[in-house]
Design goal:
It is a single chain. The protein has helices at residues 18-32, 90-93, 104-121, 139-146, 175-180, 185-188, 200-207, 216-221, 232-237, 271-285, 307-319, 332-344, 357-366, 382-388, 399-404, 430-446, 448-460, 466-479; strands spanning 2-6, 36-42, 56-65, 68-79, 82-88, 128-132, 157-162, 170-171, 193-194, 197-199, 210-213, 242-244, 294-298, 323-328, 349-353, 369-372, 392-396, 410-411, 414-415, 423-425. It is of the alpha/beta class and 481 residues long. A hairpin with a 2-residue loop joins strand 9 and strand 10 (197-199). Helix 10 (271-285) packs across helix 13 (357-366), helix 11 runs parallel beside helix 12 and helix 11 runs parallel beside helix 16.
Length: 481
């Protein structure tokens, strides 16, 4: 099958979040399965061209957006069996960051229109155009409405994946023609209208042949009023074409047996001593007691990640006989809270404000428990990485966290220690969060063999992309006749 991924970010060229990981890792799995897979993504100024010596100029094209005639260049390279096409335009993509500009709607309208020109002029005949999130959400609409008579383009089937429903690609109705040369009737009849604006994500939901999101539970949540961020009605209308497929993770990047960034590599046979050596070295380096349980957070510090619960959990841990380590940046009040926590209890706390990939790997390998109590989490990657390194996730039962972590429980009939690979609580409140952390801390102190068994279960958990990629390929085959 001939597949084109359209994504506003993709490793190894650009990344702000999990979208870049998924676009790359899923594509790499397709290549392993011997499919022809390409990725088209912007050529941002942050890309270090010296790291990619095999990039070559592919073609020069032009986009017309109303009165604008915009020249751009496409560059090409191949990495890990993936054919990359990078759209280069200095005006739109040579910025200090990937997103957050007043003209983001125009920037990614240009990118979407550039993809259309690429498809029209490419020698490739793609079976599937897989678009990711709002930035390229208008592409299925363009293919079905503006280019329905084009003999090459109208054969391409489209799949939209929703990674983060918070961002819907809003812009004014008057810009529909200005940016995409589409008739305003699409807004008037509701096809692309959401919250009295044009939404590129809504357009994707309406016109894509199939729609996916990144976990089965999140797919269900998106069809409820409470969990859909306003998308429930449109997704319910498309429920027969909507499915949740749990993300995998890149086992090459995160591998305790070969990770050069951790203190000591380990595998399933020697994980007890290996993890302990990592913990001892981390604690020695940061003045923590290695005999105490180490609870870790590696995260963007935003409200979505459950900051208020993390505040309470970290305060409890550092006063109840545990160590707490956090690596991340985000909301100022969160950064201030953790800095204050460190000043109050330096013997039990490690804080790093910012992101440091080397330190993140060390923390995954050293930690006993990994805290991730999100308000909502379409899929989540941190809990999977934690499993990979034998760290037990403590999560709230939402989205992909619910689908990927089996919480430990025990009752009069026994326990599920043969299957459990973490700790899970249901309701978003401080009482449940602290109760769950308290249970983990108590089991660490009183039932070390049980914690070791759960850690082994975590290490054995399969988060490879193979099964999920097969599900996507089944979906593609349904629409390619």
């Amino acid at each position: 099958m001939n597949i084109l991924m359209a994504s506003s970010e993709c490793l190894p060229f650009s990344k702000t979040g999990g979208l870049a990981d998924v676009a790359y890792s899923l594509s790499k799995e397709y290549a392993r399965k011997k499919h022809n897979v390409s990725v088209i993504t912007p050529f941002y100024s942050s890309i270090d061209i010296s790291k990619f010596p095999n990039i070559t100029k592919y073609q020069e094209l032009e986009v017309k957006m109303n009165w604008r005639h915009i020249r751009f260049t496409i560059y090409h390279t191949e990495i890990d069996g993936i054919s990359y096409f990078l759209v280069d335009n200095k005006y739109y993509f040579y910025r200090d960051s990937l997103y957050g500009f007043y003209d983001d709607g125009e920037r990614f309208a240009f990118f979407s229109n550039a993809i259309i020109e690429f498809l029209k002029n490419s020698s490739n005949n793609f079976d599937i155009l897989h678009v990711h999130d709002w930035q390229v959400g208008m592409l299925p609409c363009l293919l079905k409405v503006r280019y329905f008579n084009d003999e090459k383009l109208n054969k391409i089937k489209t799949v939209l994946t929703i990674h983060n429903p918070l961002f819907k690609g809003y812009f004014s109705p008057s810009s529909l023609y200005d940016l995409y040369e589409l008739n305003q009737n699409l807004y008037n009849d509701g096809s692309v209208r959401l919250d009295d604006q044009v939404s590129t994500l809504k357009a994707g939901i309406k016109f894509a042949d199939k729609i996916t999101t990144v976990s089965p539970t999140h797919a269900y949540e998106l069809t409820t009023r409470e969990g859909s961020f306003g998308l429930w009605y449109d997704l319910t209308l498309r429920q027969n074409d909507f499915v949740g497929i749990l993300n995998g993770m890149d086992y090459d990047e995160f591998s305790p047996r070969s990770d050069k960034l951790i203190y000591k590599t380990f595998n399933l046979r020697n994980y007890k001593t290996g993890k302990n050596e990592n913990k001892v070295e981390f604690c020695k380096e940061h003045n923590l007691d290695p005999d105490l349980p180490l609870f870790a957070v590696v995260s963007r510090l935003t409200d979505q990640k459950g900051l208020d619960l993390i505040f309470s959990m970290s305060d409890f841990i550092t006063h109840a006989g545990g160590n707490f380590a956090v690596l991340g940046s985000g909301e100022t009040h969160a950064e201030n809270f953790f800095n204050d926590l460190y000043m109050k209890n330096q013997n039990h706390t490690f804080v790093y404000i910012g992101y440091n990939n080397n330190l993140a790997h060390k923390l995954y390998a050293a930690s006993d428990f990994f805290i991730m109590p999100s308000k909502f989490e379409p899929c989540g990657l941190g809990q999977m990485i934690a499993h990979r390194y034998g760290s037990l996730p403590i999560v709230r039962a939402t989205g992909g966290l619910k689908d990927s972590v089996i919480g430990y429980y025990s009752d009069d009939n026994g326990d599920n220690s043969d299957l459990a690979n973490g700790f899970v609580f249901n309701d978003y409140n401080v009482c449940e969060a602290i109760k769950t952390v308290g249970e983990a801390l108590n089991l660490y102190n009183t039932r070390k063999k049980l914690i070791t068994k759960l850690s082994r279960n975590a290490l054995k958990t399969d988060h490879t992309w193979s099964a999920s990629a097969d599900k996507y390929l089944e979906l593609y085959n349904e629409i390619v006749k």
